[in-house]
Amino acid sequence: MQAERVDLQFPLPTELPGWMHSGTFTGYQAASGFLRELLDELGLSGASGPGHVVLGDLVFTVNRAKPAGWAQNTWLDARLIPAPSIGQAAKALKDMQRNWWVHPVRLARRSALVTEKLPKVSARPQVFGEPAPTAPLGAWTLWNEGWLIASPACTSPYPDGLPQFVEDRESAPSRAYLKLWETFTLVGVAPKPGELCLDLGSSPGGWTWVLASLGARVFSVDKAPLDPRIGAMRNVDHCLGSGFGLDPAIAATPEKPVDWLFSDMACYPERLLTLIQRWLDAGACRNFVCTLKFQAETDHETARAFAAISGSRLLHLAHNKHELTWILLR
Ligand SMILES: C[S@@+](CC[C@H](N)C(=O)[O-])C[C@H]1O[C@@H](n2cnc3c(N)ncnc32)[C@H](O)[C@@H]1O
């Protein structure tokens, strides 16, 4: 178990930066407990600078949005809106679009009163297999009693960027399966029946259970055994050993690549990068989903190297801890 992280806390800013008055800007909502990581990733230091300001766990910048793995949600089109009363705040939001989610940092009571005047937005847990919502969900926060910041467009269609699922506490041997459910829901693609999946670092078997339940053929590798119920699934083969010992040139060929490589191995991200490079260079696999697990220090350099792999995405899932998930689909 990882200890709950205590996040950075800066004093709340009082002065509205001038650039907020002169057009749209970007807001990044830090993944819970990872404001330091987000600021480092964005190349920003401290609570405010010439083109940025931090409000709680929100980082606003004058620059256009860029991909940020440590942002749970990015406000792509943030703007400052006069909100001298609760009614006027609600009207300004409703005039823009129907669906809004508040991210209160200050003035929680006033935020709740504005929310009461807005159409209801459901945040119910979804059943795995349902598609991600397609309706735009805007995000807003009160800056003070006279102004709010709102963005009608965000990177995530979920409240605060946090999808929730109706959990299966019976079948899955660990809660790690939620990371795969979330990944497949966000990207809208999952292994098809009969596709070959390698699951490296698979024990006790949450990911293997998800993949085998989808009808994929799973070759599962871990130094530790699988939960016997998962190992007994019809389309699962398990090998006791290291995921680093599997030679891509022997496991597959460019003509007959593995369909998916999954890694949730507890290992240094740098070592995982070397492994993934070998698989990419050999043209031995089409799709990848890998967890980068950081130790006490976040290895930003390796995270950047993963993010730089053409066509890939690096993101913090709601179900990630001090981790990022790297996804490459082809
Ligand atoms: C977080 S657990 C994986 C949970 C799994 N995805 C699930 O859904 O149940 C990390 C696993 O990585 C495994 N591991 C660490 N180093 C490994 C290696 N070199 N090769 C294979 N597995 C490794 C550990 O034994 C451990 O079972």
> What characteristic shape results from the CA principal axes?
elongated
Lateral strand order in the biggest sheet: 2-3-4-1-5-8-7-6
Q: Remind me, CATH topology of the largest domain?
A: Rossmann fold
The largest pleated sheet is described as: 8 strands, mixed
Q: What is the CATH superfamily classification of the largest domain? A: Vaccinia Virus protein VP39
Oligomeric state of shown chains: single chain
Q: How much helical structure, as a percent, in the residues? A: 10-25%
- Say how many strands there are: 15
**CATH architecture field of the largest domain:** 3-Layer(aba) Sandwich
- Name the CATH class of the largest domain: Alpha Beta
Number of domains: 2
Order of helices and strands: EHEEEEHEHEEHEHEHEHEHEHEE
Decide which structural class fits the backbone: alpha/beta
Distance between the termini: 34 Å
- What percentage of the residues does DSSP assign to strands (E)? 15-25%
Question: Could you tell me the mean pLDDT?
Answer: 96
How many helices? The count is 9
Give structural attributes.
330 residues; alpha/beta; VC0802-like; Rossmann fold; 2 domains; 8-stranded mixed β-sheet; 7-stranded mixed β-sheet; 25% strand; binds S-adenosylmethionine
Describe the protein in words.
- With 330 residues, the chain is of the alpha/beta class.
- It folds into 2 domains: 18-161, VC0802-like (2-Layer Sandwich); 177-328, Vaccinia Virus protein VP39 (Rossmann fold, 3-Layer(aba) Sandwich).
- Helix content is 23%, strand content 25%.
- The strands form 2 sheets. Strands 2-3-4-1-5-8-7-6 form an 8-stranded mixed sheet.
- Strand 6 (100-102), helix 3 (108-116) and strand 7 (138-142) form a beta-alpha-beta unit.
- Helix 2 packs across helix 3 and helix 4 packs across helix 5.
- The radius of gyration is 22 Å and the shape is elongated.
- The mean pLDDT is 96.
